[in-house]
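User: Some background: our group keeps a shared notebook of sequences we're curious about, and every so often someone picks one and asks for a predicted structure to add to the entry. Today it's my turn. The entry only has the sequence so far, pasted here. Could you supply the structure so I can complete it?
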Amino acid sequence: MTFTCLTRGTCRRARALTLVSAALFVTHTAAARAQHMSHGATPQGDATSTTMSEVGMMPGAMQQGHDHMNPPPAGVMGAHIVGKGKVMLMYTPMFMKMDGSRIGTRRVSPEEIVTTVPNRFDMNPGMPGVQPPTLRIAPQEMSAEMHMFSAMYGITDTINLMVMSSYVEKRMTMITFAGMKGTTRLGISEGSTEGLGDTTVALAFKLWQGQGQRLNGNIGVSIPTASITERGRMLSPMGMMMDMRSAYGMQLGTGTYDLVPSLTYLGGSGRLGWGAQIKGRIALEDENDEGYRWGNLYEATAWLSYKLTDGLSGTARLAASTQDEIHGQDPQIGGIFQGTYPEFYGGERIEAFLGLNGHMPLGEGRMIRVGIEAGVPLYQNLNGPQLERDWSLAFTAGLHF
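Assistant: Of course. Here's the predicted structure to add to the notebook entry:
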């Protein structure tokens, strides 16, 4: 597919709309095929009071004696409504690994980065010309963990209140090259940050439901409770350890109030289930306290699920996302390292996921559900040089009562 755009922002929005449309088309096609395959069977998912967790749990219908649709994949957030007076507590750890860098869709080596990407930061104020012409530090790999805790309460059967926060841990390994130029590796340094993440408060709404189908909406605000002033140590090309403010990607939150909306469609027939979701993260402020804001993020996903047993289902999912670069700049984030450049963030990704969901009734209207989902990228077009995503893994455990 070819895009012709007047500006990069226009092109990003065009791609985002195309990805969303594609996801919904896949879901519609899957639904039609599933209904054809299950013709004559009683559709599952009675349209009365179905419960789904933040990552795809749906025990509410079972409590009322009805069949229920297969739960969405473990990595799908904001897809459920609990009944009036009901509570859902969730713990969702997520893990991600990044390894190597890309410029656009092309993979680049650390040696190429430090010999071709211009340095625009003056590392020696007052000494014009005494600075490296290119970047001299390149990331090797990065890992991130997010431990999310959430609670949902049913204000009514159609309106829920949800609060979610997280604890974030990030680690990065960087390669430093010796001197002002060349490809001689001097050494490796490691940096890490950890602490409380941003906090989201949201309302979830049941918008529509029919025979084996439903549509839910979610509107939330992310509150900047995470630190964006974390510091770390990095090996300089001259062999000294530098103490400096960590790169944008190593900070723990956005620093801005962000709008977090989503719209989720779910369907099911026989052993088959399907669904789609579109969501976004949109900054509500021009900049945070440090002078910048993250680019708006738009995501679309579509999935199929299959009931393996009464208590176990498998899922397969495709997801697409697009995000703008960082706008503005933190004056204390700088240096000859790609993570300090606001324009080297954002881009487009398409990922594939496989997962399992299980549940165990506890009696008296209580239920435990667990899930797992693993994903790998199929396509990455990054504003780079930027670390590319290698794999991701999500678990979930929840109690409904």
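Suggested note for the entry: The chain has one domain: 8-400. Residues 8-400 form a domain with the Porin fold (CATH 2.40.160.40).
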